[in-house]
Amino acid sequence: MPRTSVPPPTGTPAVTSANGTDSALTHGLKQRHLSMIALGGVIGAGLFVGSGAGIAAAGPSIVIAYACSGLLVMLVMRMLGEMSAANPASGSFSVHAERAIGPWAGFTAGWAFWVLLCVAVGLEGIGAAKIVTGWLPGTPEWAWVALFMVVFLGTNLASVTKFGEFEFWFAALKVVAITLFLVLGVLAVLGVLPDTDAPGTANLSGAGGFMPNGSEGLVIGLLASVFAYGGLETVTIAAAESENPVRGVAKAVRTAMWRIALFYVGSMAVIVTLVPWDDPKVVSVGPFYAALDHLGISGAAEIMNVVILVALLSAMNANIYGASRMACSLVARGQGPMRLGRVSSGVPRRAVLVSSVFGFLCVLLSYWRPDDVFPWLLNMTGAVILVVWIFIAVSQLILRARLEREEPQKLVVRMWLFPVLTVVALVAMAGIFFLMLRQPGTRDQLLATGALTAVLIVIGALRQRRSAGAGA
């Protein structure tokens, strides 16, 4: 399927080159930036806070839930890594979907992901503001969100190098925090931490056993864990602006496996071994706080608040970046308003500004319409990441065969056991959709996301037909 493109706005070299890279963007990200973005992208605020609900539902079997969803994410990242190493582009999976399936697919995947990131920016801003107002009571939440927006708007408008530096240090703080937690946790489990007795398997087998709520609880934990992995895709977007895009994305994807196992599965195993799964603190203040409090570490609540604040601010920074690059790539391929794609000094500044404004609008909606519009917006983006993963898998099925036939030298990263594991991943995604339909708590999310996806598909198909008619 031929790709569609339009000339960029006057004075803007916002085009996508033949090899898939965006020629107007600079290559200001160093390998250390990209490595830390990949590493930090695995450690989100959802791990520190959202995992509590999964533990409460699944009990100790949350370890199995995170391991299963982690395997699926590994497969998705391997597929995405194969395509991104072969053709690095700031549009990442949107570009791959357009090449493999058609412009309508690139349009749908790209704009759905843009909406998801913008809404996430608003949510992360709200979460960060709540923490700060807890320290400084009486200050308005919206003012703190506005301040965070201005700061990260500045870092993203300045240059990609500035973004990379901010994200490098944010990610470094998260990595240090989770590493220290794991070291302390393992020492406590082994019984070598001072004033702490080894818990053995008491918390794993007591209070209802390993699966206290049966398979239904495991399913809820599985669904909670799947969406905790969102954010890994940003590294393939950032790779297009690194010094060596092919080597950068290949290295990041290849090392993502042990990071997922260590940070997610490892931390869940430590928590459910140390703390009873039905401890009220696991949900009320978060599982990491509950574990630190169990170890008698003074100031555990404030330590975790600082870590969560850093995680939220890091996610805001990364999501503004990812949204702006996705929008810029879509415009460069004729899939959006031309003015939005203007690039100045290697930065798509209008896309950065619009993405930030949309995110702040979501924040305002949480105050203006908290009972109808805002919940609808959240539901609409609830399952977008699964839609994106399906586009990734289908695109890889098509492009792998094309690459082997036309450009086998570009297969620097190869999907394991192709096409078997790609098909297995697709079946697993379909299974998750089925499980979401069965659960009242996720059914509305799935239906709302389905409506958003259907609208984007129709618009994308109409644009593609109009473009084909104009070129005839």
Automatic annotation (TrEMBL):
<protein>
    <submittedName>
        <fullName>Amino acid permease</fullName>
    </submittedName>
</protein>
<keyword id="KW-0029">Amino-acid transport</keyword>
<feature type="transmembrane region" description="Helical">
    <location>
        <begin position="101"/>
        <end position="122"/>
    </location>
</feature>
<keyword id="KW-1133">Transmembrane helix</keyword>
<feature type="transmembrane region" description="Helical">
    <location>
        <begin position="297"/>
        <end position="316"/>
    </location>
</feature>
<dbReference type="Pfam" id="PF00324">
    <property type="entry name" value="AA_permease"/>
</dbReference>
<keyword id="KW-0813">Transport</keyword>
<keyword id="KW-0812">Transmembrane</keyword>
<feature type="transmembrane region" description="Helical">
    <location>
        <begin position="351"/>
        <end position="368"/>
    </location>
</feature>
<feature type="transmembrane region" description="Helical">
    <location>
        <begin position="218"/>
        <end position="240"/>
    </location>
</feature>
<dbReference type="InterPro" id="IPR004841">
    <property type="entry name" value="AA-permease/SLC12A_dom"/>
</dbReference>
<feature type="transmembrane region" description="Helical">
    <location>
        <begin position="36"/>
        <end position="57"/>
    </location>
</feature>
<feature type="transmembrane region" description="Helical">
    <location>
        <begin position="260"/>
        <end position="277"/>
    </location>
</feature>
<feature type="transmembrane region" description="Helical">
    <location>
        <begin position="446"/>
        <end position="462"/>
    </location>
</feature>
<dbReference type="InterPro" id="IPR004840">
    <property type="entry name" value="Amino_acid_permease_CS"/>
</dbReference>
<feature type="transmembrane region" description="Helical">
    <location>
        <begin position="374"/>
        <end position="399"/>
    </location>
</feature>
<feature type="domain" description="Amino acid permease/ SLC12A">
    <location>
        <begin position="33"/>
        <end position="443"/>
    </location>
</feature>
<keyword id="KW-0472">Membrane</keyword>
<feature type="region of interest" description="Disordered">
    <location>
        <begin position="1"/>
        <end position="22"/>
    </location>
</feature>
<feature type="transmembrane region" description="Helical">
    <location>
        <begin position="142"/>
        <end position="161"/>
    </location>
</feature>
<feature type="transmembrane region" description="Helical">
    <location>
        <begin position="411"/>
        <end position="434"/>
    </location>
</feature>
<feature type="transmembrane region" description="Helical">
    <location>
        <begin position="63"/>
        <end position="80"/>
    </location>
</feature>
<feature type="compositionally biased region" description="Pro residues">
    <location>
        <begin position="1"/>
        <end position="11"/>
    </location>
</feature>
<feature type="compositionally biased region" description="Polar residues">
    <location>
        <begin position="13"/>
        <end position="22"/>
    </location>
</feature>
<feature type="transmembrane region" description="Helical">
    <location>
        <begin position="168"/>
        <end position="193"/>
    </location>
</feature>
